[in-house]
Design goal:
With 338 residues, this protein is an alpha/beta fold. The chain has a single domain, classed as TIM Barrel (Alpha-Beta Barrel). It is 28% helix and 18% strand. A twelve-stranded mixed β-sheet has the order 9-10-11-8-7-6-5-4-3-12-13-14. The chain has a two-stranded antiparallel ribbon with strand order 1-2. Helix 1 runs parallel beside helix 2 and helix 1 packs across helix 9. The two termini are 35 Å apart.
């Protein structure tokens, strides 16, 4: 039996941090309007992003030292990074000290290339997948993403189910006057395809900086719109950010991530590592801690663990979206990692 020498990583508000979000690239083959501009992005040079060996080392330290039990791979778009199954295979070898179980290894993707990788990623040890899709209408999808690839995304969703991922979750950012007329359509899609829709309130991380509260469709409105057609009941919420609702007729469930109108900051258990190795203790953090310099200058595991703990020690109570004291991050979503 493995010896558990880990110690919980606790922030100043008593929240135990156990979930690691790792961005492995700032690049993406889509240009979603709420994420990055169509032109003008300054991409990181390959030498400026963490190698797979460096990513594995940071993840191992978080798991072995602090008992992290969840890792999510993000981007940009993670599938544009070469030899992705190799990274998944490495991370899948990590074991949570307290239980000896493998970490819960998940990924968020736009799905456009997932059909090509689904079987390999599953075999490598990927546990779960979320596929982003903000419209089921081809013309609108192209307007939102800058790419006419809705068919490929739907193929990716099908491939995820065929490969054995369960549940397959589909992320939908709901925006007033943009796609809020598709909420019931997505609910029907989820029920029909056997996937869980995750409706996400529109957050102030758009590349253009044009976000405003009147563009947010509140979680309550989303649930009421779907419930009027398919009666639902709330499911007891765990540590995940989504509040889940079960269809009373037994045809699955959906979730709503109410980051703006019902923040879940008090239960937040995650930190993020950007593609260039910066620790962010909140999606909306305005300060970062540089791990890349440590990793490339001979720092010990103790040094890296201390740097991570130091950043968590500065974590705030909440993000304050919608309040006068809210400070918008300098980075957009594609540069942070979802």
């Amino acid at each position: 039996m493995a010896v558990d020498n880990s110690a919980p990583l606790v922030d100043p508000y008593g929240r135990v941090v156990r979930d690691l979000r790792i961005s492995i690239t700032d690049r993406c083959n889509f240009r979603c309007t709420y994420c990055m501009p169509e032109e003008g992005m300054q991409w990181l040079d390959r030498a400026e992003i963490l190698t797979y060996e460096e990513i594995e080392r940071v993840a191992r330290i978080c798991v072995e030292r602090y008992g992290f039990d969840g890792i999510r791979i993000t981007g940009g778009e993670p599938t544009v990074r070469a030899r992705l199954p190799l990274l998944i295979q490495r991370l899948a070898q990590l074991r949570v000290p307290a239980t000896g179980a493998a970490v819960d290894l998940a990924m968020t993707t736009n799905g456009s290339s997932f059909a090509l990788l689904a079987a390999d990623l599953k075999a490598a040890g990927l546990s779960r997948v979320n596929i982003s899709c903000d419209s089921l209408r081809p013309e609108r999808f192209q307007a939102l993403t800058g790419r006419g690839q809705l068919g490929r995304v739907l193929e990716g969703i099908d491939a995820a189910r065929t490969a054995g991922f369960d549940p397959v979750k589909v992320n939908v950012v709901v925006m007033r006057g943009v796609n809020d007329d598709e909420m019931v359509d997505f609910a029907e899609f989820g029920r029909r395809q056997g996937v869980e829709i995750r409706f996400i309130e529109f957050m102030p991380l758009d590349a253009q900086g044009e976000w405003s509260m009147d563009q947010v469709v509140p979680a309550e409105e989303i649930v009421e719109a779907i419930g009027a057609v398919y009666p639902v009941e709330a499911v007891v919420q765990g540590s995940e950010p989504a509040t889940r609702y079960r269809y009373l007729d037994g045809a699955g469930a959906f979730g709503v991530i109410a980051s703006v109108t019902r923040p879940f900051c008090e239960g937040c258990d995650r930190i993020r590592i950007t593609a260039e190795g910066q620790v962010r203790n909140c999606l909306f953090a305005v300060h970062e801690t540089d791990l890349m310099t440590l990793l490339r200058s001979g720092a010990t595991d103790d040094d890296i663990a201390a740097a991570i703990a130091g950043d968590v020690g500065r974590k705030w109570a909440g993000h304050s979206i919608g309040r006068v004291n809210f400070i918008r991050p300098a980075r957009g979503m594609s540069q942070i990692g979802g």
